[in-house]
């Protein structure tokens, strides 16, 4: 295995042409924060890493668009927006190390999707190198462009199987003015859809997250944090909204009081400052880091928000029956139907046996997803780990078309072979 560290799009194109001439497979590497094995080079492939393509190239204040190289760190782009009194809303736990190219290749989501959408919604143009080594400029930052197929969207979420993303034109938006957080304890997850509907009716939410009591206990113990609300619940919902006026704040309080009256909420606390909002977010954002030492088996899955309660109940039954001795940690983005199921490896069990036990139950969970029209991968991609289960979310006809598209862009099958399809 070798690693190439190009600095320009032209260098990437030369690498791809050389790889074609020598029948060498390529694996793209961004910030290496993926969880589906999409950037794993397990067969001696040439790794093309974008760490040295990390520059902001152009910024246009009028259109609020920035052009940057694929290796720019997410947090770097967020700070660039802030420095220009703007806002890049795609945000997640790995923003300090994930790269823009990787975010685009997996169509990353995160905690703000309910208000701002996925990475796809902020990409105005791409420069890519196809599997043939051809450089394509896709859309060029245009807002309106009715000239046939928008190939930009084929590369978003393609996981490096069609070619390599080298530059991106990203749009910004105005920053929120007074982000306020509500942390609520609830009795069970059957109430979560009603609670979401209650707040969405009058409150413009920027986030609607949830996590289990088990997750909260892990975070409190690991980070020595106090219990955030007095009344313990089985689950907790964290809501964020832009309280840019007294009227909006009053609407949120009215929704909270209605939730208490309708017995959807057991207890809750609202931030009174930016610092308090950040403190409340810790209970949600620290979960992944806290449980990482236990080598969790992760399932990143989704259904439409109206089916979340039904899905959770069914999967919880499967997990309880199949994993009676395993610890299960739930958290996720309820506002867009994205759930993270984390099963913790027992210390007395080998990781190989633990993984095998988890994999045996995957078809049961994915059958529930299929029947509810859900996805086996909400935001982490397919990569190697989810590839055997792709047929639970994609029909045979869809997979055949996907393979046909790959053959057009990458006829020699050198671009991240063995991933996705």
Automatic annotation (TrEMBL):
Belongs to the FAD-binding oxidoreductase/transferase type 4 family. The keyword Flavoprotein applies. One of its GO terms (molecular function) is FAD binding. PANTHER family: D-2-HYDROXYGLUTARATE DEHYDROGENASE, MITOCHONDRIAL. Keywords: FAD, Flavoprotein, Oxidoreductase. This is FAD-binding oxidoreductase. Transmembrane segments: none annotated. Its cofactor is FAD. One of its GO terms (biological process) is respiratory electron transport chain. Pfam families: FAD-oxidase_C (PF02913), FAD_binding_4 (PF01565). PROSITE patterns: FAD_PCMH (PS51387). It comes from the Bacteria. Residues 1-175 form the FAD-binding PCMH-type domain.
